[in-house]
């Protein structure tokens, strides 16, 4: 399924954050959105998943306009979201958190045990800790759980917000490796990251967001060589 974000405008109350954001994720594509703090990356993902209501523009998933759908209906439609801050249920176990991820979509419920096995293979650490309370996991383990829970809904497009935040290079590598694997299996990924070098290496295409507007886009490999991007985001 293709995700299209066209001329998106959104904000919080009277504060407009997104002025003109257009991003496309082709079926099975891995796309990154990079940009400085406060550029509007998180808000873009929230507007796609229906947590923030857009004030203008259009978001479609597989041709369906998401404007009138609730966040739950958007998940049912095939969108997974790994939110910033993870938003896990700390007093529930790893397994219970994962099972919740499968509770919304009929196709996810039907294939719950199969998907669970797959997620636990992707993240053996979660398998070891399946009975542990989510709130007692390390930051990296929580991030894996947040990705795992989103995968339990068997999404066709996965939004991922800053998965490397607060993680050691080793755990970042594990989480990014899992995203790559999921993408290889056909899931479209829209990754928002401050770790610009890593995300441009993972993605095939990328967009640069500044002050709520897309100011640059292209093949990730080209952006890696772009002098402006290197100076502003890679400190090179
Ligand atoms: P970061 O990398 O720091 O997370 P970002 O690019 O994801 O930044 P957003 O989180 O989308 O940026 O924030 C964009 C702007 O919107 C910021 O100025 C922020 O202060 C503001 N903002 C975010 N969430 C809210 C909110 N709930 N209420 C009011 N303003 C908000």
UniProtKB/TrEMBL annotation:
Superkingdom of origin: Bacteria
SUPFAM superfamilies attached here?
A: P-loop containing nucleoside triphosphate hydrolases
An example molecular function term from Gene Ontology annotations: ATP hydrolysis activity
Entries under InterPro entries matching the protein: AAA+_ATPase, ABC_transporter-like_ATP-bd, ABC_transporter-like_CS, BCAA_Transport_ATP-bd_LivF, P-loop_NTPase
Keyword hit for Transport: yes
- Annotated Gene3D superfamilies: P-loop containing nucleotide triphosphate hydrolases
Identify the Pfam families for this entry.
ABC_tran
Give any single GO term for biological process. Answer: L-amino acid transport
Q: Which UniProt keywords apply?
A: Amino-acid transport, ATP-binding, Nucleotide-binding, Transport
The answer, when asked if Transport is one of the entry's keywords, is yes
Residue ranges of domain ABC transporter in the record = 3-236
> What family does the entry list?
Belongs to the ABC transporter superfamily.
Q: What is this protein called?
A: Amino acid/amide ABC transporter ATP-binding protein 2 (HAAT family)
The upper taxonomy is:
Bacteria, Thermotogati, Deinococcota, Deinococci, Deinococcales
């Amino acid at each position: 399924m293709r995700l299209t974000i066209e001329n998106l405008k959104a904000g919080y109350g009277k504060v407009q954050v997104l002025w003109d954001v257009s991003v496309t994720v082709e079926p099975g594509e891995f796309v990154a959105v990079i940009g400085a703090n406060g550029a509007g990356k998180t808000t873009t993902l929230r507007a796609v998943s229906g947590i923030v209501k857009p004030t203008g523009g259009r978001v479609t998933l597989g041709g369906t306009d998401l404007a009138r759908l609730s966040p739950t209906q958007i998940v049912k439609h095939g969108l997974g979201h790994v939110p910033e801050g993870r938003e896990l249920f700390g007093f529930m176990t790893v397994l219970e958190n994962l099972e919740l991820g499968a509770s919304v979509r009929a196709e996810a419920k039907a294939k719950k045990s199969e998907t669970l096995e797959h997620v636990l293979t992707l993240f053996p650490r979660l398998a070891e800790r399946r009975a542990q309370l989510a709130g007692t996991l390390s930051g990296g383990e929580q991030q894996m759980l947040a990705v795992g829970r989103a995968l339990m809904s068997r999404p066709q497009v996965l939004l991922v917000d800053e998965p490397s935040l607060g993680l050691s290079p080793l755990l970042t590598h594990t989480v990014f490796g899992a995203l790559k694997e999921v993408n290889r299996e056909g899931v479209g990924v829209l990754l928002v990251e401050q770790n610009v070098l890593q995300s441009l290496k993972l993605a095939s295409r990328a967009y640069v967001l500044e002050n709520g507007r897309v100011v640059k886009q292209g093949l990730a490999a080209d952006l890696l060589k772009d002098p402006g991007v290197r100076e502003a985001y890679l400190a090179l």
